Amino acid sequence: MFMSMSMKPRTKSAGSLPPSEEPVFSPQWWMGATEELLPDSPIQAPRASGEVHAISLKTTVSRPNSASSSPRASLSSESKSKTADSINEFGTLDPSPYSEATFHQFVTMKKGSLKLNTFKRTHKKTSSRDSEQLGGTVTSSTDSERQMYAQERLDNFRWLSKLLGSYADCDPLTEKDEVDHKTAAKVYDICQFAELVYSAVPVELLVKHSKALEEADILQEYRHALGDSIFVGSVNGAKTDLTAYVVFRRSTGQLVVSISGTSKPKHMVQNLRAVRTIWPGLPSSEHVDRTAKDSIPTVHSGFLTLYRDIKSDLEQCIGDGIAAHHPAELVITGHSMGGSVAHLLSMDLLGPNLTIEIPKKMTLATFGAPRTGNAVLVQHFRKLVREYKGQFEEYSVKGYNDGVVSVPPRSLGYVHFCQRPIYAFRRKMYWVPDGQSEASLFHVENSDADVSQENSFPRGGHNYYGRDLEGMRRTLEGLHAAGFPEKPDWQSQFWKDARKGGDLDRAKTKDSLKP
Q1: In terms of residue numbers, what domain contains 49?
Q2: Angle of helix 301-325 versus helix 337-350 axis, rounded to 10
Q3: Within a 13 Å sphere around the CA of 83, how many CA atoms are in the beta-carbon half?
Q4: What is the CATH number of the domain that holds 266?
Q5: Which CDD domains match (predicted)?
Q6: How much is the pTM?
């Protein structure tokens, strides 16, 4: 959802320990627009004006059952005694009282734009929550992990997980809850395509020159996905610059549709528009009492705007792929906000108004997706799945310490689509128990958990769903800077830059990291 908004570069070397400061989400611009609001909606995005306003907002946020020893808990008696409306993570007013960790936001509105800065906060390198996992033992980082965390620049929203995340009210997950190997392999496989959509190099070129990349020992972890694919097409939203692409996989007969998460300031603008609006995809024959709010399927207005911007072109691209390759299975995937848009696309593909004849098998796989709509919208989605004349598989993966899955908050009427998501922790996947789909964190007690791997991503976060997504993006940025594939010397230039930046391991992304 927010993953690609860059943070200020750090000066630590590649082999050094990660700094004690955790990067904090700092969206750059918010245009404060709203459309199709619910009647009498209590939540209104602010209107920007030409005047300049400097506002200091002191807000408090909390997590249930928080311990006073939390590394983020440092409240004055004054802040503890006050209960006031707070600004939630999407910038709209949330009247829920909070009590644990306090942070400051300074908002400047000028020339029709709103700039929101959230200050960095320091905390211990390893939190008490980390120590609760795996029998309370905090394992030491490997060299690979230390290098990875030292090079981390993007916000992984661990801070948001600590502020808004909630542990499930259930027994710890064990090896009995593990996802079977066949399913885990399929989900892990699909995730490659959800990651590649962030590429600085067009995916079409990666597919076309996959053999050259394999021979150069670059992006080895993605060689099967790229080498097995036939590029169908890509789309780019005219208004929001949201990107998506479609490929056909020879070996599996899958037509894969991958939708990007947040990668541009325009996307962040839409992320902040958390006002819910009526879902427009209802068939005219379906009766809805639009005067009763609790009977109206509503959706995040920003996510809907992003989806509408690519809907027509993406459906055309999907239709072209089906006509050309006659796939046995249609796969829709997305990471972060892209997962929310993937759900909206799936509802239209499952609906009665679609002119495309989709395959008899459909898979929806999302990674680190936020909540997208209200309970009525989820009921509508489940109804479409039941009426689908084929096989439908749904995989919604939540990662340890990924705060994005905790937003928008339930207090604003949002719920998750998936009733039985998957929890990803240290390269293992676990089925979430029934009734715990809204929880973002789970205790894990698995004696079979393999923490001896070169890199098990012990800190979790938004960009670690089986691979180092940020590392992959750095590699692709390096390829783009080296002139891949046009310049004859792109390979030597790429390795020269990689050695200078100390990023050789990240460039190769060996399959030894595969679970």
Answers
A1: 21-134
A2: 60
A3: 4
A4: 3.40.50.1820
A5: Lipase_3
A6: 0.74
